[in-house]
Write a structure and sequence with these properties.
The protein is of the alpha/beta class and 286 residues long. It has two domains: 3-218, Rossmann fold (3-Layer(aba) Sandwich), CATH 3.40.50.300; 227-285. Helix content is 29%, strand content 29%. The chain contains nine helices and 13 strands. The chain has helices spanning 43-51, 74-78, 96-104, 113-119, 135-147, 165-180, 192-198, 216-219, 261-274; strands at residues 3-14, 17-28, 32-36, 58-63, 81-84, 153-157, 184-189, 201-206, 209-215, 227-232, 248-250, 253-258, 280-285. Strand 11 and strand 12 form a beta hairpin. Helix 3 packs across helix 4 (113-119).
């Protein structure tokens, strides 16, 4: 089996924060793999390490067979990956076509510019300046910049943020098309429906650690029945305040059983994010 990405015991910390705390997973060539979790879960930090933009503290990372932290491989790697960050700096006085043409020059075998413009739905805006684009149109241009190099591996960090429902569905179709053409996709998202619609496999991140991972249908609880989710009851939170029905409480350890793992985790993590509550010790067992 050939892997586009291999991660083993990755750690990355900032002062007083463990952004990524001992995560391990592998992404097969040609698959769509998702990192699911709220803001602050460690998704963006992980992706920036994979892209070679951020040094790791420890652990092993291989992207297309090379270490992204080794600068001697960086140019080779940059020619073979595409990157769509949450925010990209694009020259506001350039037109859509000019921005794409300039970036295409950085790659040995770029896609046709007109093809890229059509794929991201900006045909009518091809000669418009970037500063005249709406937020959603700028996000589509970001995706165009990510795919213009015809990458083997595409990193998508929250790809549909800022898009309206119609543009979001169009982006989903584009991601499926890229995957069908052989592009490996690693995406991050905090939308459960997006992950269920697109990803072959998923890792659920919570406070820098992987709480669960596997085939998306498996994590949704649709193939192997009941799972047990455990976590520490947050400080100043009563059991009755939780958005989920508990099965057992032992001291401050909360346990619940469910046959719909992905939706339950999504509900719990979204609730914690809305209230700025930390979910410590989150684990999933089957």
């Amino acid at each position: 089996m050939t892997f586009a990405l291999r991660v083993d015991s990755l750690r990355k910390s900032y002062p007083n924060i463990k952004a990524v705390d001992d995560i391990s997973f592998e992404v097969e060539r040609g698959e769509i793999f998702a990192l699911l979790g709220p803001n602050g879960a460690g998704k963006t930090t992980s992706i920036e390490v994979f892209e070679g933009f951020l040094p790791r503290d420890s652990g092993t990372v291989e992207v297309l067979g090379v270490d992204p932290g080794d600068h001697q491989h960086l140019r080779w790697l940059r020619e073979r990956i595409g990157v769509v960050l949450q925010e990209l700096a694009v020259e506001s006085f350039f037109t859509v076509r000019q921005v794409l043409e300039r970036n295409a020059g950085f790659y040995p075998h770029p896609r046709n510019i007109d093809e890229v413009i059509e794929m991201v739905g900006l045909t009518e805006k091809s000669d418009a300046k970037v500063k005249k684009l709406s937020g959603g149109q700028q996000r589509r241009l970001d995706i165009g910049l990510g795919i213009v190099g015809n990458p083997e591996l595409l990193f998508l960090d929250e790809p549909t943020t800022g898009l309206d429902p119609a543009a979001r569905r169009t982006t989903w179709d584009l991601i499926r098309l890229l995957s069908s053409q052989g592009t490996t996709v690693l995406m991050s998202s905090h939308y459960m429906d997006e992950v269920e619609a697109l990803a072959h496999r998923v890792a659920v991140l919570s406070r820098g650690r992987i709480a669960a991972q596997g085939v998306t249908a498996s994590l949704g609880g649709r193939d192997k029945g009941e799972v047990t989710i455990r976590f520490s009851l947050p400080r100043n939170v009563a059991v009755s305040d939780l958005p989920v029905t508990t099965s057992r409480v032992d001291g401050n350890i909360v346990e619940l059983r469910t046959t719909d793992e992905l939706r339950t985790l999504d509900r719990l993590i979204s609730w914690a994010l809305e209230r700025n509550v930390a979910i410590e010790g989150l684990s999933v067992t089957r």
